[in-house]
Amino acid sequence: MAESLATHGVVPDVIDKAPGKILSVVYPNRISVEIGQVLTPTQVKDPPTVNWDADANVYYTLCMTDPDAPSRQDPKFREWHHWLIGNIPGVNVAKGEVLSEYVGSGPPKGTGLHRYVFLLYKQPGKLTFDEKRLTNRSGDNRGKFSIKKFAAKYKLGDPIAGNMYQAEFDDYVPLLYKQLGA
Protein backbone atom coordinates (compact mmCIF):
# COMPACT_ATOMS: atom_id res chain seq x y z
CA MET A 1 0.00 0.00 0.00
CA ALA A 2 2.62 2.55 1.09
CA GLU A 3 4.79 1.74 -1.91
CA SER A 4 1.85 2.05 -4.33
CA LEU A 5 0.80 5.48 -3.04
CA ALA A 6 4.41 6.67 -2.96
CA THR A 7 4.87 5.49 -6.57
CA HIS A 8 1.98 7.75 -7.58
CA GLY A 9 3.29 10.68 -5.49
CA VAL A 10 0.34 10.73 -3.07
CA VAL A 11 3.05 10.66 -0.42
CA PRO A 12 4.14 13.51 -0.07
CA ASP A 13 1.76 15.53 -2.32
CA VAL A 14 -1.33 14.77 -0.21
CA ILE A 15 -0.26 12.96 2.96
CA ASP A 16 3.00 12.41 4.83
CA LYS A 17 2.51 8.73 5.61
CA ALA A 18 0.61 6.11 3.61
CA PRO A 19 -2.14 4.21 5.41
CA GLY A 20 -1.64 0.53 6.10
CA LYS A 21 -4.89 -0.67 4.57
CA ILE A 22 -6.61 -0.43 1.21
CA LEU A 23 -10.05 1.18 1.18
CA SER A 24 -12.63 -0.72 -0.87
CA VAL A 25 -14.16 1.68 -3.41
CA VAL A 26 -16.74 0.30 -5.85
CA TYR A 27 -18.66 2.43 -8.33
CA PRO A 28 -22.32 1.68 -9.23
CA ASN A 29 -21.17 0.23 -12.59
CA ARG A 30 -19.31 -2.45 -10.57
CA ILE A 31 -15.90 -0.94 -11.19
CA SER A 32 -13.72 -1.69 -8.19
CA VAL A 33 -10.92 0.84 -7.78
CA GLU A 34 -7.40 -0.57 -7.88
CA ILE A 35 -4.58 1.76 -6.84
CA GLY A 36 -3.37 3.80 -9.80
CA GLN A 37 -5.70 2.40 -12.45
CA VAL A 38 -7.03 4.76 -15.09
CA LEU A 39 -10.80 5.32 -15.13
CA THR A 40 -12.89 7.82 -17.09
CA PRO A 41 -14.97 10.66 -15.64
CA THR A 42 -17.99 8.90 -17.16
CA GLN A 43 -17.23 5.75 -15.12
CA VAL A 44 -16.92 7.67 -11.82
CA LYS A 45 -19.71 10.25 -12.16
CA ASP A 46 -21.86 8.71 -9.40
CA PRO A 47 -20.85 8.22 -5.76
CA PRO A 48 -19.17 4.90 -5.02
CA THR A 49 -19.80 2.45 -2.22
CA VAL A 50 -16.90 2.56 0.22
CA ASN A 51 -16.16 -0.20 2.72
CA TRP A 52 -13.55 -0.91 5.35
CA ASP A 53 -13.06 -3.07 8.41
CA ALA A 54 -14.92 -0.72 10.77
CA ASP A 55 -15.52 -0.69 14.48
CA ALA A 56 -19.27 -0.09 14.96
CA ASN A 57 -18.57 2.11 18.00
CA VAL A 58 -16.19 4.46 16.20
CA TYR A 59 -16.75 7.51 13.96
CA TYR A 60 -14.80 7.98 10.74
CA THR A 61 -14.06 10.73 8.21
CA LEU A 62 -13.88 9.95 4.48
CA CYS A 63 -12.34 12.24 1.88
CA MET A 64 -11.81 12.15 -1.89
CA THR A 65 -9.37 14.76 -3.13
CA ASP A 66 -7.52 15.73 -6.34
CA PRO A 67 -4.01 17.15 -5.79
CA ASP A 68 -3.62 17.90 -9.51
CA ALA A 69 -5.90 20.91 -10.02
CA PRO A 70 -5.81 22.31 -12.63
CA SER A 71 -2.96 19.96 -13.75
CA ARG A 72 -0.24 17.80 -12.27
CA GLN A 73 2.37 20.15 -13.80
CA ASP A 74 0.69 23.28 -12.35
CA PRO A 75 -1.26 22.28 -9.21
CA LYS A 76 -2.07 25.86 -8.15
CA PHE A 77 -5.48 24.83 -6.76
CA ARG A 78 -4.12 21.79 -4.89
CA GLU A 79 -6.14 20.13 -3.48
CA TRP A 80 -9.61 20.24 -5.04
CA HIS A 81 -11.75 18.08 -2.79
CA HIS A 82 -14.50 16.03 -4.36
CA TRP A 83 -16.16 14.45 -1.32
CA LEU A 84 -15.95 14.92 2.42
CA ILE A 85 -18.03 13.10 5.03
CA GLY A 86 -17.45 13.12 8.78
CA ASN A 87 -19.02 11.42 11.78
CA ILE A 88 -19.58 8.19 9.84
CA PRO A 89 -20.84 5.66 12.41
CA GLY A 90 -18.98 2.41 11.78
CA VAL A 91 -19.09 1.64 8.06
CA ASN A 92 -22.44 3.38 7.45
CA VAL A 93 -21.37 6.18 5.07
CA ALA A 94 -25.03 7.10 4.40
CA LYS A 95 -25.45 8.06 8.07
CA GLY A 96 -22.37 10.28 8.11
CA GLU A 97 -22.42 14.07 8.12
CA VAL A 98 -21.94 15.29 4.53
CA LEU A 99 -19.61 18.26 4.54
CA SER A 100 -19.13 18.24 0.75
CA GLU A 101 -21.43 16.33 -1.59
CA TYR A 102 -19.80 13.96 -4.08
CA VAL A 103 -18.53 15.46 -7.33
CA GLY A 104 -17.03 13.05 -9.87
CA SER A 105 -13.78 13.57 -11.72
CA GLY A 106 -13.63 16.57 -14.04
CA PRO A 107 -10.08 17.16 -15.20
CA PRO A 108 -9.85 20.05 -17.69
CA LYS A 109 -9.16 19.17 -21.33
CA GLY A 110 -5.48 18.80 -22.12
CA THR A 111 -4.30 18.55 -18.49
CA GLY A 112 -3.45 14.84 -18.59
CA LEU A 113 -4.06 12.36 -15.82
CA HIS A 114 -5.21 13.58 -12.41
CA ARG A 115 -4.95 11.53 -9.22
CA TYR A 116 -8.13 11.02 -7.22
CA VAL A 117 -7.27 9.98 -3.69
CA PHE A 118 -9.61 8.40 -1.14
CA LEU A 119 -8.55 8.63 2.50
CA LEU A 120 -10.22 7.31 5.64
CA TYR A 121 -9.54 8.61 9.13
CA LYS A 122 -10.57 7.22 12.51
CA GLN A 123 -12.02 10.07 14.57
CA PRO A 124 -11.22 10.54 18.29
CA GLY A 125 -15.02 10.71 18.90
CA LYS A 126 -18.05 12.45 17.39
CA LEU A 127 -16.96 15.86 16.13
CA THR A 128 -18.52 19.26 15.55
CA PHE A 129 -17.36 20.45 12.12
CA ASP A 130 -17.37 24.18 11.38
CA GLU A 131 -16.77 23.75 7.63
CA LYS A 132 -19.17 25.34 5.15
CA ARG A 133 -21.44 22.63 3.71
CA LEU A 134 -20.95 22.25 -0.04
CA THR A 135 -23.45 20.95 -2.59
CA ASN A 136 -22.62 19.19 -5.85
CA ARG A 137 -24.10 22.14 -7.78
CA SER A 138 -21.12 24.45 -7.38
CA GLY A 139 -17.34 24.20 -7.41
CA ASP A 140 -16.99 27.09 -4.94
CA ASN A 141 -14.85 26.52 -1.83
CA ARG A 142 -13.44 23.20 -3.06
CA GLY A 143 -10.05 24.36 -4.35
CA LYS A 144 -6.93 24.91 -2.21
CA PHE A 145 -8.16 22.35 0.31
CA SER A 146 -5.67 20.35 2.35
CA ILE A 147 -6.74 17.05 3.86
CA LYS A 148 -3.52 17.21 5.91
CA LYS A 149 -4.59 20.54 7.48
CA PHE A 150 -8.18 19.33 7.90
CA ALA A 151 -6.93 16.19 9.69
CA ALA A 152 -4.68 18.27 11.95
CA LYS A 153 -7.50 20.72 12.77
CA TYR A 154 -9.77 17.89 13.96
CA LYS A 155 -6.98 15.75 15.48
CA LEU A 156 -7.63 12.83 13.12
CA GLY A 157 -4.02 11.64 12.95
CA ASP A 158 -2.82 9.73 9.92
CA PRO A 159 -5.26 8.03 7.53
CA ILE A 160 -5.98 4.39 8.37
CA ALA A 161 -6.99 3.34 4.83
CA GLY A 162 -6.76 4.72 1.33
CA ASN A 163 -7.07 4.13 -2.40
CA MET A 164 -6.70 6.14 -5.60
CA TYR A 165 -7.32 6.10 -9.32
CA GLN A 166 -6.36 8.36 -12.19
CA ALA A 167 -8.57 10.02 -14.80
CA GLU A 168 -8.34 12.51 -17.64
CA PHE A 169 -10.84 14.52 -19.65
CA ASP A 170 -13.68 12.76 -21.50
CA ASP A 171 -17.06 13.81 -22.94
CA TYR A 172 -18.74 13.78 -19.51
CA VAL A 173 -16.59 16.64 -18.15
CA PRO A 174 -18.50 19.50 -19.90
CA LEU A 175 -21.75 18.13 -18.40
CA LEU A 176 -20.15 18.13 -14.94
CA TYR A 177 -18.93 21.72 -15.42
CA LYS A 178 -22.46 22.76 -16.37
CA GLN A 179 -23.80 21.09 -13.18
CA LEU A 180 -21.19 23.04 -11.18
CA GLY A 181 -22.12 26.32 -12.87
CA ALA A 182 -18.70 26.65 -14.52
Q: Which labels suit this protein?
A:
single chain; six-stranded mixed beta sheet; two-stranded antiparallel sheet
Task: Describe what you observe in this structure.
With 182 residues, the chain is of the alpha+beta class. Helices cover 13% and strands 25% of the residues.
What percentage of amino acids are in beta strands? 25-35%
Overall number of strands: 8
Mean pLDDT: 96
pLDDT under 50 segments (min length 5)? none
Number of distinct helices: 4
Order of helices and strands: HHEEEEEEEHEH
Question: Which secondary-structure class do the elements indicate?
Answer: alpha+beta
> What is the overall silhouette?
globular
N-C termini distance = 36 Å
Question: Portion of residues in helices?
Answer: 10-25%
- Write out the strand line-up for the largest beta sheet, numbering strands in chain order: 1-8-7-4-5-6
